[in-house]
Design goal:
single chain, Endonuclease-reverse transcriptase
């Protein structure tokens, strides 16, 4: 899409990062990560007991996980950026907003490593 916006063909051998810099279009995966971060902060600061907040804070007390590598949880990603007390950090709107870019950057780097 961005190549067609600039009338660049594949044969012109232009690097994708150069094209993205010229168009100014945000990477969709980065945008999704930013929106996910914002929604998490919004949800945790909400004074109402919504099901999304209850499910996020709920820990099952019975049973054990199955054998093998534990599944990655949403909370695990948040802890990497905001630290162990990420729920407390979410209540401070300015601090939470400051960590948004770090979260999106970390997720992008992880995707680049896995590809």
């Amino acid at each position: 899409m961005e190549r067609s916006m600039l009338s660049i063909r594949k044969l012109d051998k232009q690097i994708n990062s150069d094209i993205r810099a010229r168009t100014g279009v945000t990477d969709i995966l980065t945008k999704i990560d930013q929106m996910k971060w914002r929604w998490t902060g919004h949800m945790l600061r909400s004074p109402h007991e919504k099901w999304s907040k209850i499910v996020t804070e709920w820990y099952p007390r019975d049973g054990k996980r199955r054998r093998g590598r534990p599944r990655k949880r949403w909370e695990d990603e948040l802890k990497l950026t905001a630290g162990y007390n990420w729920r407390r950090v979410a209540n401070d709107r300015e601090q939470w907003k400051g960590l948004e870019e770090a979260f999106a950057k970390r997720q992008t780097e992880l995707r680049d490593i896995l590809e």
